[in-house]
Structure formats: C-alpha cells, structure tokens
Amino acid sequence: MKNFIIYIALFLTFGYAGCGKPACVIQGKIESKWNGKTVYLQIIEEENMRPQSIDSTIINQGEFKFAQTSVSPQTALLSIIEQGKPAWTTQFILEEGNIKITSDSQGNTLIAGTPNNELLQQHFNRWYIPYNKMRQSSEEMYRLEQAGQLTRNTLDSLDKNSQSYMREMRLLSLEFVKENINNPAGKSLLMEIMGLPDRLLVDVVEKADSISLRHPLMQQISKRINTYKAVAVGKIFQDVIAVNMQDQPSRLSDYAGKGKYVLIDFWASWCKPCCIEMPELKQLYHQYKEKGLEIVSISIDQDKDAWQKKIKELQMNWPQMIDENKEASKTYVVGAIPHTILLDPTGGILAKDLRGKELEEKIAQYLK
C-alpha cells in the first residue's frame, strides 16, 4: 500500500509536469473573409525544402491559435490552402515563446514576440517597401489592360519597374542573410537568394560557421561558389567543347591562349538585349580585329536553325558555337545573358560582365 501511494505521488508529480504550459503558442489575427477556413501550421524540411503540415485549426472571428509542446528553432509557414494551392501564407520562425502574427488586407504581415521573429520582422519592414511598390505596379498593369489602355511603352515601363523592385527585394534579403546566416532567421531566407548571381553569394559562404555550412541550401551555394571561383577574374580560362556552324566539335582553346585578346560572348537568338547589342560587338570586332581581338560567341539556344538564322541576319562574322550540352554555361556559371568574359593573350580572365561603354573602354585600354 505504501509503495502504491508513492507511485501515485510520483505519477502526479511528473504527470502534471508533462501537462504544463506549451513551449510555443502562436496567436494569429487575419482578415474576417477567412472565417471558417482551415489554417495549417507547416514546417520546412531542410532536406527537400518542402512544407510538412504538423497541425491545423479553424479561423474564428478573424483569429486562430496553435500550441506546441516541443519545438526547436526552424523555418515554418502558416497557410490557407484552396484548390490544392496556398491562398494565403506567411513565413516565420517556429521557436519557444509566444508568437503573435497579424496580417492585413494588403498581405502585409507583422510577426512579434520571440527573438528570431523580431529579427525577421525588422527585415520584412524594409522588404515590404519595394514589395508594395511592385504590387501596385502589377495592379496598375492589370487595370490598364482591363481598360484596353495598356500600350507597349507603358507595359515595358511597368515591367522594368517591377523587375527593379524584385531585385531590390532580393538584395535586401541577401544583406539580411549575410548578417544572420548563423541564426534561424538568416537561414529561413536562403531560398530567397538562390537566384542571385554567384558573385553576390561569396560573402554568405565566408560568414557561415561549420553548422550553417551543413544546411542543404548552403551546400548548394558552396558548390556554386567553388565553380564560380574557378573562373573568377585572375584565373586561367577553363577549356570547353561546343558545336560550331559546321556541326563539328570546337574547343574554346582553339582561340583562347593563342596570343590574342578573346571576348567570350554568351547569347541566344531569342535574347532581345543580346541582339540589340550585337551591332556594338560588330563595331568592336572590325575596329580591333587587326590589333589582336577575337570574339567567340557561345549560344545557349535549343533551336539550331533559329541560332544559325540569327547569326546570318546579324552578320556575326566571327567564331560561333552552340552550347548543346550546357557544358560551357555550367563551367562559366552563366546565370543570365548577355554574359561576356574578356581573356588576355595567355588565356587569363581580365574582366567579366562588361557591356556597352564599359566593354568598349576596357578593350581600348589593351588594344590602343
């Protein structure tokens, strides 16, 4: 009997201890139009970066609440799913403490209550400025289109503005990640910067500690940076094989490192900026060909006929290759076109991504 009483006492002590306050409470406020809808609490699995639902609740009078008994800091989402797609979603850090999330009718979200979420909110406060401008630009584009007033010039202008706002958003995320890569808030935005040029991601890798470098996305970035560094300014060119106009294999080393300055130009027949700038390359080629300049254009086209047709149309009278297996594009980490690389007579990389006036001045510097 005495042992039974002791057992009951121990059960009450430890049993009730396990039923204490939850480690994490999430309180949300959202537009009343979502009343009666299910909101899902999801965590982002690092291995595949896919959301996994771990809890759900019904929105009542514009409010919802989650309570989690055990959590460790990780990227999470709150999502309302309609027809298999997110109709509303917001990102935050699932961690111990009381987290308050408020979303307004414009899609702006305020996250407060815990250290990493307060830090993340500081970033979002800056990020929402270009985001709202981009949203307004898209709404204006839609309004004009519906009214039949959307001209080509207006479309180009609004599209250019939207691209600028998108780039500003990514660069803000990049700066935040660089400063916070070793905490959960910084890691939560890694996906946002994956589309940026590799040269902008070098600092992220250099600032990451050994634990952060084990993150799957950081491993991808590290691999990209190693490839990028192999073809950085000051390095010797990497030889690649592509197909020439005669449908025969051709090596970059057939031209590079042979005593001439070589301009490698990555382009495509469908790339409007590439084609617009081609007359400038023609002028440079004719002006400096006899002084020691060679141009090698490498196309990323899929359509050989379109590639050859555009070459003839633009009268590109210098060596041409098409990167059928993407070897050249991968080797030189070509994320966007046009993309140029200037080599010295020994094959050393002098400059990258020069266009227009900058390219002309750089070539003139060496071939006066």
How is this structure best described in words?
The structure is a single chain. This protein is an alpha+beta fold. It folds into 3 domains: 20-113, Sandwich (Immunoglobulin-like), CATH 2.60.40; 117-230, no CATH class; 241-366, Glutaredoxin, CATH 3.40.30.10. It contains 11 helices and 15 strands. The chain has helices spanning 2-17, 115-146, 152-180, 184-187, 190-193, 202-207, 216-230, 272-288, 304-314, 327-331, 356-366, and strands at residues 24-29, 38-44, 51-58, 63-68, 74-82, 85-94, 97-103, 109-112, 241-244, 249-251, 261-267, 293-299, 320-322, 339-343, 349-352. The chain has a 7-stranded mixed beta sheet with strand order 10-9-13-12-11-14-15. The chain has a 4-stranded mixed beta sheet with strand order 4-1-7-8. A 4-stranded antiparallel beta sheet has the order 3-2-5-6. A hairpin with a 6-residue loop joins strand 2 (38-44) and strand 3. It is elongated. The termini are far apart.
**CATH architecture classification of the largest domain:** 3-Layer(aba) Sandwich
The biggest beta sheet reads: 7 strands, mixed
Instruction: Report the top-level CATH class of the largest domain.
Output: Alpha Beta
- What does the oligomeric state look like here? single chain
Write the layout of secondary structure elements.
Elements: H1 2-17, E1 24-29, E2 38-44, E3 51-58, E4 63-68, E5 74-82, E6 85-94, E7 97-103, E8 109-112, H2 115-146, H3 152-180, H4 184-187, H5 190-193, H6 202-207, H7 216-230, E9 241-244, E10 249-251, E11 261-267, H8 272-288, E12 293-299, H9 304-314, E13 320-322, H10 327-331, E14 339-343, E15 349-352, H11 356-366
Parallel strand pairs: 1-7, 11-12, 12-13
Antiparallel strand pairs: 1-4, 2-3, 2-5, 5-6, 7-8, 9-10, 9-13, 11-14, 14-15
Helix pairs in contact: 2-3, 8-11
